[in-house]
Queue: 2 jobs
Job 1
Amino acid sequence: MNKVLIAPSILSADFSKLGQEIKDVERSGADWIHIDVMDGHFVPNITVGPVVVRSIRPLTKLPFDVHLMIAKPEAYIESFAKAGSDIITFHAEVEEHPKEVIKLIKYFKKKVGVSIRPKTPVKLIEGILQMVDMVLVMTVEPGFAGQEFMPECLPKIEELRKVFRKDIQVDGGINESTAPEVIKAGANVIVAGTSVFGAKNYKEAISKLKGQTYPCRGGGR
């Protein structure tokens, strides 16, 4: 089993003090920083762009895990790569030529992720699995934070783990109750938004997501 990694999603952070939030989760044991990019077309919401990625890049050495929930990822890969992204994930549903997108991400020497929505079958990405570093299985419909976990996605994670030995990431409704389920199914990278940034103690929240027992010593972030 691959090591369990926690990638707090800044979509749920307090943007009035985003820099401090990132430093706090890094100090609390986060492994990656997850950045949700939405364009108002592929999903009904608009979030951040390359300018934000560039502005927060100097604040941490943690890998930036950038999830492009956008209609034309190929048009923005260069911008996000040069802004400081380490992993760039695109959605299989928007691409007729995913291999070209993968080649473009690799051209900029970044790791490649491909994501599938809850109703998208693993079969759609079977032909490109050998080309990517990570598969992101959405366990909610992408677009907004704070949605309820969809347990019907668990068999998809199990199916994927049988044929894919690299990182399997899950995103959507993940908390200390649902994290063990997705880890048992085969996921090893956990995206968590409100369950981390909504907690009083970030270190305790991250430890619980990893399945670790957190000592009760009080304290904050």
Job 2
Amino acid sequence: MITGVNSKKERSLIFLAVFIITLFGLLMVYESSSVYAFKTAADATYFFKKQLISFGVGMLLFSFTLFVDLELLRRWNKEFLLLTILCLVVVVFLGREAGGAKRWLYLAGFNIQPSEILKISFLLYCADYCRRKRNLIKSIGRGLVPLGVILGSICVLLLLQPDLGTAGFWVIWTVLFLFLFNARRRHLVFVILFGLVLAFFLVKFYPYRLKRVTAYLDPFSDPKGSGFQLIQSQIAYGEGGLWGVGLGQGRQKLFFLPASHTDFVFSIIAEEFGLLGSLGFVLIFFFLFHKMFKIAARASESFRSGVLWGVVLIFFLEITINLGVSCGLLPTKGLPLPFMSYGGSNLVVHYILLGLFFNASRERVIQDQ
């Protein structure tokens, strides 16, 4: 039986879940940034208004992406990826620096982060790559090496920003993506081992990265330095307890927890809504993944299947990593929580990805279970 009422209902539920998460994210961006925004910009709603504009832009592009011709995107995926890589090169030399890293381009009054656009362009490229190489994907020389060269080039440019975390994210994403498309496991294990060895040296010989790892293992060894952010995040979890301190009553956003409206917004949620409120959002994320997995698993056409699984993996990895970092299960990594953290490029790109997912899932080649 071809796509029908069930898939339409699942898409509606997915959109409803994302919409609820986004609206609550807007609330928490205001909650966690108002004091900081008033001090730095003399406007308590500064970050909230920028996020609201990004939400509007994201919704417009989401609506456009729903009806874009996927075949056109497939045909032009190489050019799109090349343009993104060129933007990454420009960032290295001309990017706006913040927090010791160059990750943004300032264009027409907006800060654009090319590494976010990479989530669209590299996804489309890999989806088409697995379609073209589906009979060679088990081969190292003809299947994995060409993609490895592209991935390696991207990672080098990310490391020059420097952004080891995002480079690692794309290595993990690519390994999982290739696993879903039947690459040989021993080849993927080799990639993982090589990546771990390389990451070891990239951490060992760069003191600020080594401090992040030692802070993760023992944040109290440097409570006022590298371990400060993680300690404050854990304090937020502890203050929240079972029921939370109440909306607007959290104290960690009062200049205690750095990046409380970006990478650590979930820590503020845990503080103000407690364990039960936090688990409620985890359940919404679980519901979202469950519905997206069901739709992706029914895809039979290779390119659209690649788009669907690629979006699922991006959402899954980002949410898992962000929650793991905020509660201290993973080393600190500047990765926003999709649809909730402050960040215009991030929010817009994720709505485009959602539009691509819905677009691909509406094709009649997807079979109902």
